[in-house]
Amino acid sequence: MKVENLSSSHVTDSDKTSKVDEKDAPANASPKVTVIEKQTQRRIFKIIVIGDSNVGKTCLTYRFCSGKFPDKTEATIGVDFRERTIDVDNEQIKLQLWDTAGQERFRKSMVQHYYRNVHAVVFVYDVTKVSSFESMPGWIEECDRHNLNKEIPRILVGNKCDMSNRVAVNTNMAQKFADSHNMPLFETSAKDDEKANHVEAIFMTLAHKLKNSKPMMSPYMSTRGRDLSNVQVVKVGKTAQGLGIEENPDNKCAC
Ligand SMILES: Nc1nc2c(ncn2[C@@H]2O[C@H](COP(=O)(O)OP(=O)(O)OP(=O)(O)O)[C@@H](O)[C@H]2O)c(=O)[nH]1
User: Is 4 in a helix, a strand, or coil?
Assistant: First the structure.
């Protein structure tokens, strides 16, 4: 397990302030110290990012959490977590992004965990690969099979727009699909530095929706009530070899 520090802060900040009450303190006695402990809690929202393998889920979440395109990615095994604390209308909220494996064989063991206590879903397809768009109904069905609350915010993201000469998924078609499932469509690129603000805006839009929504489960806790306040970024089983799973050379990333 590899731990990366991409997180900007912890969920619970504890500020201790010491105050000396001089009136009560005899001249030769040590001053009486009153400790005022102020606890502030931040809401944590769990967002799962799903879609076929190689559509750019890791790159999108990395772009949002670290502000850049990763130098190198590998197929996700199980799930990767990334977190970022943001300010939404003067409230600090933490978005916990669950970057899930697109490959079926790397999902099996973790799939139950993805769908527990989810606050929002990001569906990702690759605009240059029609099959990844055609898989979208299957991903929505998977959410339904795991009884995901239909009321939680969902967004559809077409990634890799920088490859403009290879776009194969028509925007109108994608928009119709998004409309029919009552979710907004964003077409973007995790890679294009000029689109960095756009990726930012996508997750900020989601954050606003979350802030104003009334989640079914406490956003102060996550996964089975475990307080994840101190979890930073944890990569679970990043390489196939580490898990004793045979790697598929065809699915190795090109970046
Ligand atoms: N041109 C371009 N390539 C991208 C973009 N986003 C990701 N890629 C590339 O697409 C490949 C797959 O990216 P990942 O982010 O690992 O894809 P993934 O969806 O997380 O894949 P799995 O972990 O297998 O589910 C890598 O080679 C990336 O460099 C993008 O916006 N534009």
Answer: strand
Burial class (CB in 10 A: 0-12, 13-18, 19+), 227: middle
Contact status, residue 189 vs residue 220, Cβ threshold 8 Å: no
Cβ–ligand 1 contact at 250 (below 6 Å) = no
Contacts of 154 (CB under 8 A, 6+ apart): 120, 121, 122, 123, 181, 182, 183
Q: What is the ipTM of this complex?
A: 0.99
Query: How far apart, in whole angstroms, are the C-alpha atoms of residue 3 and residue 103?
Result: 22
Regarding pTM above 0.90, the answer is: no
Our mutation pick for probing the ligand 1 site, out of 59, 81, 162, 252, counting the most ligand atoms within 8 A of Cβ, is 59
| Phi, psi for 109 (deg, rounded to 5) | -70, -20
Nearest CA to 7 among 69, 94, 76? 94
Q: Which atom of ligand 1 has the smallest separation from the CA of 192?
A: 31
Instruction: Residue 212: name the closest of 147, 82, 120 by CA.
Output: 120
pLDDT digits (tens, 9 = 90+) for 51-97: 999 999 999 999 999 999 999 889 988 888 999 999 999 999 999 99
Give pLDDT tens digits for 181-226. Answer: 999 999 999 999 988 889 999 999 999 999 887 654 555 544 443 4
166 Cβ below 6 A of ligand 1:
no
Tokens of 123: 């569906």
Query: What would the two tokens of residue 91 be?
Result: 């409230």
